Amino acid sequence: MGSIKNLKKEINYVLVDIIDQCLVTLTEDTKKSEAIIDEAIIVFDELIAKVNAKNVENKKTHFKAIESELTNRAAKLLVKINALKK
Q: How does DSSP assign 29-68, residue by residue?
């Protein structure tokens, strides 16, 4: 992990890319697409709040956990987007 600033950028880039993919794959069922976008925004807010948390004992472990959570949650969102394409 680089810096907190880079972690915030990574969170932003990943989730904005997911939202872009969702907008590209809008289908007749826009409610599902909108739900995925809303979920991505919630994930963004939660992860940024975790990054900004001040009462962390082991910062290195904390930030690695956030990176791992970003990867897992982004993958789940991409699975949902891919399901829309079918």
A: -HHHHHHHHHHHHHHHHHHHHHHT-S--S-HHHHHHHHHH
Q: Is the pTM of this model over 0.85?
A: yes
**What is the C-alpha to C-alpha distance for residues 71 and 63, in angstroms, rounded to an integer?**
12
- Distance (Å, whole) CA 50 – CA 62: 9
Nearest to 36 by CA among 67, 72, 79: 79
For the stretch 12-57, pLDDT in tens is 999 999 999 888 877 667 888 899 999 999 999 999 999 999 898 9
Round to whole Å and give the CA distance between 81 and 58. Answer: 35
Q: How far apart are the C-alpha atoms of 2 and 49, rounded to whole Å?
A: 18
Cα–Cα–Cα angle for 19, 23, 28, rounded to 5 degrees: 135
> Whose structure tokens read 């994930």?
43
